Amino acid sequence: MAPTRTWALIAGGGTAGHLLPGLALARALVAAGHDPESLHFVGSARGPESTMVPQAGFSVDVLPGRGIQRRLTPVNLVALAEVAVALLRGIALVRRHRPRVVVVLGGYASAACGLGAVLFRVPVVLLEQNKRAGAVNRLLRRVAKAAAVSFAGTDLPRAVVTGNPLRPEIREMAENPDPAGARAALGLPADRTVVGVFAGSLGSRRINEAVRDLVEAWSDRSDLAVRHVIGSRDFHDFMERAPEPPAGGIIYQPVRYEDRMHLLLDASDVAVTRSGGSVFELMAAGLPSILVPLPIATRDHQMANAEAVAATGGAVVVVDSDLTGDRLASELAQLLDDPERLEQMSVAMRGAARVDAAERAAEVVEAVAGG
Length: 371
Hints:
By secondary structure, this protein is α/β, with parallel strands linked by helices.
């Protein structure tokens, strides 16, 4: 039997923030009738693609590469060599597969395949997670036939606002919320207000320190529970000085990593988090949020994301340098002491959500491939 021809090459990744929307898009294309074997991923050898893509039922090639440091160092010579190899391999992959369309997720692996698409006249669709487009998508914006964007006003031409494709478990949670069940699964009480804190797999030292101070200041509160995802980078150091509230006081759950994020979103009444493309998961959950944008994010895109979400009425924004335990306590108190405002914020978040973003983005890809 002849091998299935590649219909779409889905290129990019390096981080879960880039890869997960691509996987959600691929699942939507399968639901629309495409053979999983006709969808092929190209990603980064240093990213999660090599494990997450096969687990999702799709094939993948990974390209070498590493970040280039902003100073003169011998490591940059190796990095540049790897980038050159990645470009050549990415172009070769497009030539070998000859897909109907190349979908660019962002990250250097997508740049290689985007260049290959231009050389072999394969139409390109950009998938952009943030309000301000990333470097690769801006590089390819003139040659792309369309861009499926998460926010209105994103700086890409031929943009269609689809929202950011959601993981299936987040979509299921949004459509069938079960806060009581989620709390039971996470060992959280049913009768307390729950604050969920998270900031990506590495975590955020700034947020972690503010939460430590908050929990110590509010240690005697019997009406609150905090589930705090610390992240892998500082977990061991943090736990050496982790708060230990008294019995009957605030319930504090520090964890290194949350592999059931859909449960934490469902269980929480308020979130404290960064503001990458995952803000669409907060919207889907209808979760009022305190957003602390990462100040070193490229083009300050996290601030742009946060401001767009805050404009809906569903979130408040705190600048990273302003976040302390006292500031966090003040912001949370204003929300927790005003149940009507919390409810209004939840409604605003759900109203801004685009739960069907994967299907919308799939329609854009099919239209370009068919044209």
